[in-house]
């Protein structure tokens, strides 16, 4: 375990330590911006897996063992072997991949598995929770300790298991990326979070689990409110029980509209807002009053919104995956350092993207340097910006060019 700060440093260091310039890395196209930045730094070439996308929810899932196997075979046919496989599990919405099978598959080829477990530092600390990535055989695991546990914001940990990855390479990569003046406040908060867990690791999440279960039971009874459950993503073994994602499209409301009402009228702060959904995170600080306020707010939202029967036109305004037709002209590193020019937004269609552009949160790039700009990706970006989402990475923040 290497405690430090900034989970994006861990992602970058893990990829730099396993991938040399020109080597391939298999990863989902909805990876965090830090993974893309790591490919710029390392010179690794992405072999993307397009994750399952549920259009009703406008949510992407994780990746499956069969998708990983297919990607490995495709690279083999090109005379290539991936230097690493990068997996996000759980996703921001709590969807967990089958890491046990993915790890076994990759290790049979001698390929290291890196898991972005930013939202899963708590996994394994309750019998009803999914197993942690380390427990399932991952070699390098990046956790944002501050997201569900109780360390300070920015603090995170990198865990390493086994001997598939060269420890010296990890150290050299991290030395390149880290400050020589670490924040001891952040380090102390990580140690405090570790100590808190060690006192009663088997029961510390009992209260949070109980509150999450009670909240879901009550929310399921609210007319017009839909709860994200496993049947929406049948290829995946489980969803983090401490993540609660609701949809309000039956009330004629987008996720952004519903979130504005919940925050403005009830002071309810969500973890993540999407075009069709709102996600809430339960943690060690969640209390009964929080659940009561959330349920009360959703009940009022339901009662005051349009009747379900009259919202058919709005229900049709569903999300669409912006990643299904990607085409890469240059690898991210070459595109990052290439000369660039600015053109009008519509004139950019069919040209090679020179910027790393992503809505935030969650920080998943819609356009990556080196990819061909498609109408679908462009429409998606313009659509989320119209809804008030912050779009980062573009030299023109208005997205007019």
Automatic annotation (TrEMBL):
Its cofactor is pyridoxal 5'-phosphate. The keyword Lyase applies. Residues 325-384 form the Orn/Lys/Arg decarboxylase C-terminal domain. InterPro entries: Orn/Lys/Arg_deCO2ase_major_dom, Orn_Lys_Arg_decarboxylase-I, Prn/Lys/Arg_de-COase_C, Prn/Lys/Arg_de-COase_C_sf, PyrdxlP-dep_Trfase, PyrdxlP-dep_Trfase_major. GO terms for molecular function: carboxy-lyase activity. Residues 15-222 form the Orn/Lys/Arg decarboxylases family 1 pyridoxal-P attachment site domain. It holds the Pfam family OKR_DC_1. The keyword Lyase applies. Coiled coil: none annotated. It comes from the Eukaryota. Keywords: Decarboxylase, Lyase, Pyridoxal phosphate. Belongs to the Orn/Lys/Arg decarboxylase class-I family. This is Orn/Lys/Arg decarboxylases family 1 pyridoxal-P attachment site domain-containing protein. It comes from Hevea brasiliensis.
